[in-house]
């Protein structure tokens, strides 16, 4: 097991990463304020891991009151109506302010449980047990919680930090390969934006990682969390540095929006977006052609797409990128690469290179 600490003053917490952590009730029970626990999970993850989690908790502390809330699986259910189901369970069970929510699942369950915890009786504790690679390296770290609104993704939410994150690498064995690859896109992102050593390490170990080697996964997750934790600790509420975590995401959001959410997984769109960011950085004179080839090779080895969907047009990209929330004052601000391992926020004053980059990728 590897551990790191996210430093946020009195909201600091530990992230433990390793094999079979879902059964480690002993890591959870010392953090409980009371004895009431609501486990929130979904119809896919629940049947595989719920019993192990419950048994570990009760073994560590027999007097726990454990309630369960099982939500339907999917981004489509990340909404207020299903948030209400969590609150209903808490209220029906008579849970008080010392209750703790445990989020057992991917980013959807984590974001919803966190927001439910932030609001219940003005805020109760919650603990993340992320079971996708994406949620282990991204959504469970940093305290952003929330749900979607019909008019926009993640439009309702709160910053609410968990008390603990347990990233169980064994749970990745049951994760579909395509979801593993999508999570790997975010791992590669950390290497590209802030850690050239991680990037080199990934280039060496990508096969083993994709085959599910738990020791390698532990290392990759720990280094990714460290990278995100460092940035979040400096900029908890996204005033500056935290924007660098959006490398590849402005292009990616354009792909997701145009193709319809669900066609392309988020990580797949981000992968193509990172390649575009690298190519644009080359056109601006910061990266070498050989750097772009390295990015392409690594993404391909992680079974990720490296070009945007052919059916998209330059105009569609520009339309979606212009409304991206990273925009301030009408200038298109993009996260680009100064070199491999260092990202920077750049204001594009003219669109020529961007258009050339998109034209060539779509051509
Ligand atoms: P997800 O939660 O939908 O999980 C993907 C799929 O894998 C689901 O079908 C799920 O049931 C299944 N699954 C999960 N764990 C499994 C396991 N161990 N074995 C088998 N199947 C398993 O998607 P995700 O990629 O984990 O997260 C995406 C969500 O995270 C989005 O809603 C996004 O907005 C959010 N997100 C939040 C942040 C943040 O900072 N809060 C950051 C990034 C993403
Ligand atoms: Mg992302």
Automatic annotation (TrEMBL):
It comes from the Bacteria. One of its GO terms (biological process) is amino acid biosynthetic process. Residues 183-327 form the 3-dehydroquinate synthase C-terminal domain. Its EC number is 4.2.3.4. Belongs to the sugar phosphate cyclases superfamily. Dehydroquinate synthase family. HAMAP family: DHQ_synthase. This is 3-dehydroquinate synthase.
């Amino acid at each position: 097991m590897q551990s790191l600490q996210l430093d946020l003053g009195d909201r600091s917490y530990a992230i433990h990463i390793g094999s079979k952590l879902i059964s480690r009730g002993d890591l959870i029970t010392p953090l409980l304020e009371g004895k009431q626990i609501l486990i929130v999970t979904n119809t896919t993850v629940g049947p595989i891991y719920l019993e192990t989690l419950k048994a570990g908790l009760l073994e560590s502390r027999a007097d726990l009151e454990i309630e369960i809330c099982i939500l339907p699986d999917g981004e489509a259910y990340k909404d207020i109506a299903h948030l209400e189901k969590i609150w209903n369970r808490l209220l029906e069970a008579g849970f008080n302010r010392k209750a703790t929510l445990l989020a057992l699942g991917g980013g959807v369950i984590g974001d919803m449980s966190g927001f439910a915890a932030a609001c219940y009786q003005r805020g109760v504790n919650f603990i993340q047990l992320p079971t996708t690679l994406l949620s282990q390296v991204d959504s469970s770290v940093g305290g952003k919680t929330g749900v979607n609104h019909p008019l926009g993704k993640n439009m309702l939410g709160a910053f609410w930090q968990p008390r603990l994150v347990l990233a169980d690498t064994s749970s990745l064995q049951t994760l579909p390969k395509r979801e593993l690859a999508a999570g790997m896109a975010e791992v590669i992102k950390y290497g590209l934006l802030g850690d050239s050593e991680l990037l080199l390490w990934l280039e060496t170990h990508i096969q083993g990682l994709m085959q599910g080697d738990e020791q390698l996964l532990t290392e990759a997750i720990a280094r990714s969390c460290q990278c995100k934790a460092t940035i979040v600790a400096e900029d908890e509420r996204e005033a500056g540095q935290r924007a660098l975590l959006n490398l590849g995401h402005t292009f990616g959001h354009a792909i997701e929006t145009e193709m319809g959410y669900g066609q392309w997984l988020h990580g797949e769109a981000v992968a193509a977006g990172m390649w575009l960011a690298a190519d644009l950085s080359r056109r601006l004179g910061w990266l070498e052609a050989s750097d772009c080839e390295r990015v392409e090779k690594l993404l391909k080895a992680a079974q990720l797409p490296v070009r945007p969907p052919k059916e998209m047009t330059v105009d569609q990209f520009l339309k979606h990128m212009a409304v991206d929330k990273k925009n301030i004052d009408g200038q298109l601000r993009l996260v680009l690469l100064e070199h491999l391992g260092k990202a920077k926020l750049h204001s594009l004053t003219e669109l020529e290179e961007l258009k050339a980059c998109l034209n060539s990728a779509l051509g």
